[in-house]
Each structure stands twice: as C-alpha cells, then as structure tokens.
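Notebook B, p. 112. Complex prediction, attempt 2.
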Amino acid sequence: MKHRSSLAIPRLGGTSMSIREVAKRANVSTATVSRAIHHDSRVNAETAERVWHAIRELNYYPNVHARSLASGRSHIAGLIVSDITNPFFPELVQGFAEAALESGYDTLVASTNYDAARTSLAIRRMLERKADGVAIMTSEMDESLIAELKNRNVPMVFLDVAEPGRLISNLRVDYADGVGTAVRHLISLGHRRIGFLSGPDNLKSARVRREAFLECLSNAGLAIEDPRMVTDGGHRIDGGFDAMQRLLALDERPTAVLASNDLTAIGALRAIRTAGLRVPEDISVVGFDDIQLAAFTDPPLTTVRLPRTEIAERAFECLARNMDLGQEDGTEPVIGTKLVVRASTAPYHR
Amino acid sequence: MKHRSSLAIPRLGGTSMSIREVAKRANVSTATVSRAIHHDSRVNAETAERVWHAIRELNYYPNVHARSLASGRSHIAGLIVSDITNPFFPELVQGFAEAALESGYDTLVASTNYDAARTSLAIRRMLERKADGVAIMTSEMDESLIAELKNRNVPMVFLDVAEPGRLISNLRVDYADGVGTAVRHLISLGHRRIGFLSGPDNLKSARVRREAFLECLSNAGLAIEDPRMVTDGGHRIDGGFDAMQRLLALDERPTAVLASNDLTAIGALRAIRTAGLRVPEDISVVGFDDIQLAAFTDPPLTTVRLPRTEIAERAFECLARNMDLGQEDGTEPVIGTKLVVRASTAPYHR
DNA sequence: CTTATTCTCGAAAACGCTTACACCGCGAGC
DNA sequence: GCTCGCGGTGTAAGCGTTTTCGAGAATAAG
C-alpha cells in the first residue's frame, strides 16, 4: 500500500486535498465527513461542526469526478440551443445557467448551428458527460436522438416541440396570443393590408406564428388574398431585408408588416428605408421576441416580447423537478407574451 | 464480490456499458481495451481491431468521470467572459467552444456580469470541475484568484490583461493600430474636430483605446483642447446615447466621433438622429469591434473589426499548447484589426 | 542452444468519493 | 436484568477508468 500518489508524481493539478485529510483533521472517518458535507441528519451536530471547521481550515472542496463516479450524478445540466450567436439565445443561456447554478448545477452549453451532425454530437456530449438533465431549445432534433436520452432516463425539457411525458416537460409559448395582440394592434391603427415575414418553414415555432397570423387575420375578416403577402425572412437580418424588398415590389404593398422575429424586422426596417420610405409613416412594422436591440433600432421597434429569462428559469425548474425532487412526470407550463409598443407602428393614413 | 451494480439498483442513467464488458467481448483485459482506445502503439494492431470491433458492437463509450478521476485530466476547458449578453461575446464563446471540441475538450462557460462575487465563483467552479485550462476574457479579475489557478498549475490565457509567463499566455490586441487607422480615416476625410466615446475606465482595453486615440490625434497635430470631447459611453447602447448627447450639447460639437465599441456607436447614432442631425452628412461616426449588427445599423456602421473568431481560436491554441503538448511556456500572439468602411463616415463639408 | 531484447498483454493498485452494512453504547420497555 | 431500538460512527466495497509492474512468448543476439 504505497498511497501518496501526489507525492510520487506531481500530476498536473498539483497536490489536492482529499477527504481523508479532512477526516484525519476532524478525527472522524471519511464516511462521516461525506455525510457532514451532505448535511446528513444522522451526524451529530457537534461532529458536523468539527468537520466543517476542518474543511474550512484546509480549504477543502470535493473532487467532482470522484463524486460523480461514486454517486452516479454529474450535477451537470445540458442546454442545447440552435445558435448562440443569435441574440435571442445569450439571455436564455444566461438565465438558465444562473438558475442551474443556484441549485448547484453547472451548465454545459451546446450550439447546434442548425446542423444535424452537430446536433447529434451535442447529444453525444451530454451523454458522455452524463448530464443529469437536458434542456433542448432547438427544434432541429431527431427523434432517435431524444430516444437515446430517454433510454438513459435523462430528464428533458423542450421549447415548443414535444409532448410532455415521463421525464419530459415542454414549455409552450402562447404564440397565438402574441401574434394576435400584435395583429389587433395593427388593425386598431387602421391597417388593412398587413404582410408577414415568416421564419424558416422547418421551424415549428415559425410555422405556428405564421398560422396564428393567418387565422387571426381571417378572424378579423381580412383574410389574405395575395399569398405573396407572407414571405420567408429566414429569421435573419439579411433574410428580412430581402423579404421586405419582395413585399415592397408588390403592386399593392402592405401598409404594415409583422415579422416572425426581431432580426427579420430589423432587416425589414432597413429595406424600407433603403426604398426611400419611412417607418412608421409609410409602413408600420412590428417584430417578435423583443431582443435588447429592439429598443435601439431606428425607430425603436414595436414588438412582441418573449420573456427569455422566464423561459430559461421555467426550463430549469422543470428539469429540477425531475432531477432533485425525483418526480417522474413532465409538465407543460405556458409562457405568455406581451406587446411592447414603441415607435415603429403608427395609424394608417392616406 | 457481488458486482453487477446496474443489476442491483437501476441507478438513474440506466445500464451503461463498462470497459469490462468490452474486454470480455474482445477477450482481452481492461488494460488492453484502455490502451486500444488511446491508440497506444504497444497494442498489437490485430488485437486493437478486435477491441474496436467490440466497442462498436456494444456502442460503448467511456465514462468520463471515471476517466477523469483516474487520469487527473478532465478534458474541460474553462472560458470566463464578462457578459455573455454583450454581443461581442457569443461569437467568442462559439469560436472557442468549437476549437475546443475539435481537440476533444468540452467548454465550461462562466459569465461574471462584471461582478466580483460571481467572478470568484466562476474561478471556483473551474477549480471544482478541474478544468485543464482556463481562458479569461474579462478584466475584472482579482490577482488572488488567478493565483489560485496558478498554484494548481492550470494553464491560462488572458485577453489583454496579463503578462505571459509560465503556463500563462496573453493575447495582445493591437488597439493602437486599430484606433490609428480609424482616426487617420477620419482625418483623411477632412475631419478636424473628432470626439471620442470611451469605455468604462476600469477596463484596461478601454483605457488603451482612449490613450491610443489621444496620442494618435496629437501625433497628427490635432491634440484635443476641450476635455469634454472625450466622454464615457460605458460600452453600452444607452451609455453611448447619453454620451453623444453630451457631445452634441457642446458649443463646438465634433464633426466626427470614434466610439470605443459598436454598442456605444449605435447609441450615438440614435442620439444624433434624435437631435435632428444626419449621419454621415452632419456627423461621421465610427465604431469598434464590428459586431454582426454593425452592418445593419442605419446607416451601416464604419467600424474597426476585431476578429473574435480568431481571438477565440488563438486563445484555445495557447491553452492547448500547455495542456496537450505539455509545454510550459506562455506566448503572446498579437491580434490585428481592420477598418471596415461602411456608410457612417463621409467627407467633412461646409 | 542459451541469453538478452522486444512485443504484447494481464493483474491489480490507485484515483477520491458514496453508501450499505456492521457495530457500539445507552436509555426504554417488560 | 435482559432484550430491543436507535442515534452515531466506522469499515470497506464499489464506482469505471488509467497505469505500473511484471510475466510470458517470440525474436534477436551470442
């Protein structure tokens, strides 16, 4: 028994305190130290205090790898997003990571870049690192991949894509309501020819928004006659720019447009101005998401706020329910939206 | 010896393949399997093939926690940024994570939010997760914290804050050059009264940019007379807005301004327009960073491009040199900048 | 044909923690 | 007076790898 590894070979990482040193110092066994650390009620209060004292004195903190190996829990929460570069996501990541941290979880972020191979790799990483739970905030997700997680009993939470089930939750954003208030806002301003800059068709949430738009319009007796009035802006600035140009080229161009997200709206803003028109005098535009930037476009963008921080927190809550409380059921909280009226919309005139 | 843990208690995570099963399947010892996995040249090619075959058949992948525990290496790279919500960072995170992934590292991101407590916590997390290396892309970093990492021989790389040393690298951005070309650009357009919207004073890089600005101007014989011509925009949109308003209120307002970052410039853009003036006809503005958004402001922003992806890749390279190649020295690559001329600058007239 | 090398490989210790199980007083119940 | 239960604690097995050490076979050298 020639222990003392750290003495033999000064491994990378240097000498690090182990639970044994704490045990020795506190004059107890390693088991008791472990129990004290986990606030196990079975250890005598006095003993526990002695242990904590030693811990502080030695500036000890447990080796997470050993801990994970022994306990089977990694205390890592996975978060998969489509594109961290999209301004929608950083706040989401931040909120999630923060909530996770509060519960003692580290967050492993993966950005799929809308790419199947990367997505698959992302799941693989979650599996390898043995994430205790995974939040999947992207829709490009193969069934087989989530099956892999399901098989291993990894709790999951989705954003608007899956049905809740065992260990699976889903956040449902009330897009219909959001789109509805936006459209009604436009209608109440007197607009009748309203265009829509949709998102990529393979994105469920984008489809939902478009459907909601269409339905809302026909409910108001304004059903779209020209199908070209809804056109794909790809949820990106340049896509929005192009899409808006198409709308402007129409014989009967819209007097107002609703964009499927703010990036698209920003592109539209530029296209309109480039065409020599003014917002909101000539055309009103409303976005969707309310990214931070929306308040600083020119003019400031009227948009439907999608509460990212709330989404993030709810998402982690869902996971925590399964991870910490050991519940097996999934839930489906509804996320509300809110119209933020700024200066890119105005009454229709002329 | 009652092994079969996975049979006894179906732990969370389900039955997971272990190296022993592979060994059994390939008719070798676990040691050989381990060696085969690591492409150890000492294992016979034929045996290795047999092992790999078994691995594929069983869909086996190693338990990272066991691996980390035994090897002392976590294959986790830490990345600490000040604010992931700041559009400057997501690209950085993305680039870093990507580079890391290619070398088999997962990235643990921490956002300090410019807060000392959080920063301290971030370091702690890196320590606990035993990150093999840490990239520190924020300047609010206490000496004592980095000492903690240094003690444990964790390689580090900084962005413009530290001196390189043992296991410590530093990326040096050539701000002087960037600011220089921007100022010369403005001067060549005929501008003589040039204002500066600086960043927060506690940020080293912000100070450097301001100094460079001042020096560059005096080199050109245009030394600033009115100290109010350089004012703090806080590196944020609203800060830039306010700062620009202060500049506009001056008796002799500038005909061009250089902002310490793009966010500030965007705020300035709005302030100028709000004051009823036009960019670039009345005032030219140039930003710094070239965030994605800069191409889509109105007008598109002339700015100094700071290559974030390159920074990210270089940063990881620096760490990898120490982590993988085992070199002990640090380096200090210089990161160049490039002026991107768009439409927010124009010749001075009248 | 023996001895020294080189190749391959296996046994088993070690990594640092968790946890099932055993154990040891000690007051309570009969 | 003896068993029972229980709060507290220690012992040691086990988590799934990596890695040292040495053994055996095969090859090279003498």
